[in-house]
Design a protein that fits this description.
mainly alpha, de novo design (two linked rop proteins), 7 helices, elongated
């Protein structure tokens, strides 16, 4: 990988690891709250602000284990925060491996995490509850997935090798990679546009497109 590629790789990876650290903190906090609430029903964590702004209100429901998708006798019927601890640890490790396949795998994991976030958000809506910890993890998942996508694009072979369009694309990736809130669809559209432009330039230079 070129120096430019290494630069982009390091930026995206640093952002992913940082977000994973936040995710681990949220997951560990949620886990400790659930355990303490199980042991003492009168326990009131800091995230229980009011009747409708409460984390334990949903933590202690059937959806607090196995996302409410697995029967109680299933090995997957474990506390949701444990899944979070596994997910963030796995993503942080895999994102540091300089391999396109691993990048694609982490993107898939990120997409799954966002699907679950939408599902759990719907559960919050049904319970008419605002869970600060839950919402924080949903935002973290979205940010991680956005960065994972940019990291995967940065690892596409030849993406950072020469060419005006490649340099332009590199700049776009670096700029949008530092703006976590940037639109992923817009980035994909820009990427495809610039890649197609590179293909057209190559076609003309080859002599097939010239008069």
């Amino acid at each position: 990988m070129t120096g430019v590629g290494n630069c982009a790789f390091q930026k995206f990876n640093a952002g992913i690891v940082l977000m994973c650290v936040f995710g681990l903190i949220f997951s560990y906090y949620a886990y400790t709250v659930e355990v303490k609430k199980d042991q003492d029903d009168s326990y009131q964590p800091l995230c229980d602000i009011s009747e409708h702004i409460s984390c334990t209100k949903v933590f202690m429901t059937e959806y607090g284990k196995g996302f409410g998708l697995f029967p109680k006798d299933s090995v997957f019927h474990i506390r949701n925060p444990i899944y979070g601890l596994i997910f963030y640890t796995l993503v942080a490790i895999l994102s540091m491996i300089n391999n396109y396949t691993f990048s694609a795998a982490t993107v898939i994991l990120g997409i799954i995490s966002n699907i679950l976030s939408i599902y759990l958000s719907h559960i919050l809506y049904l319970y008419r509850d605002i869970c600060v910890v839950c919402i924080s993890t949903y935002i973290t998942n979205a940010m991680i997935t956005s960065l994972l996508l940019r990291l995967m694009l940065a690892r596409i072979p030849g993406l950072f090798n020469g060419g005006v369009s490649s340099r332009r694309l590199r700049c776009k990736l670096e700029v949008y990679g530092t703006r976590v809130g940037a639109s992923t669809p817009f980035l994909l559209a820009s990427t495809l546009k610039l890649l197609l432009r590179d293909s057209d330039d190559l076609y003309v230079r080859s002599g097939f497109g010239g008069a």
